[in-house]
Amino acid sequence: xxxxxxxxxxxxxNVYKIAIAYGVVAWLLIQIASQIFPFFDIPxxxxxxxxxxxxxxxxxxxxxxxxxxxxxxxIKRTEDVAPGGxxxxxxxxxxxxxxxxxxxxxITILIFPGSSSSCFSQRFLDSxxxxxxxxxxxxxxxxxxxxxx
Length: 149
What we know:
Layout (H helix, E strand, L loop, with lengths): L2 H10 L2 H22 L7 H24 E4 L2 E4 L10 H24 L7 H18 L13
Antiparallel strand pairs: 1-2
């Protein structure tokens, strides 16, 4: 199999799109975990576990996207599907829309991080301010011990 045929086969089976969609969703999940877990006092190793599981899942997702195809009858092995029987165009369109939707949501969150007026986001921002103020505050010391504080 030549390199051009291999790349064309990757494109036909939507492996590129699966890789991009997985990367975007994995990045979003990592961002959510790293922001939300400390708020609920979930240990820091849980964020590492989420990252590790997402890294392990990436090649598995690529293997499944190579081995299986979506057909009108459901998911089938690639060898069992006739060349015209797959709905790669429809599947590709759905993956494109998923990628665009997630990217738009992420961009919106990044551009307008504090614009949400929900009670949850206000409490979250208030707790961040408290932690920031506590980190800035210096310890109380006697004047003669001020050198060591």
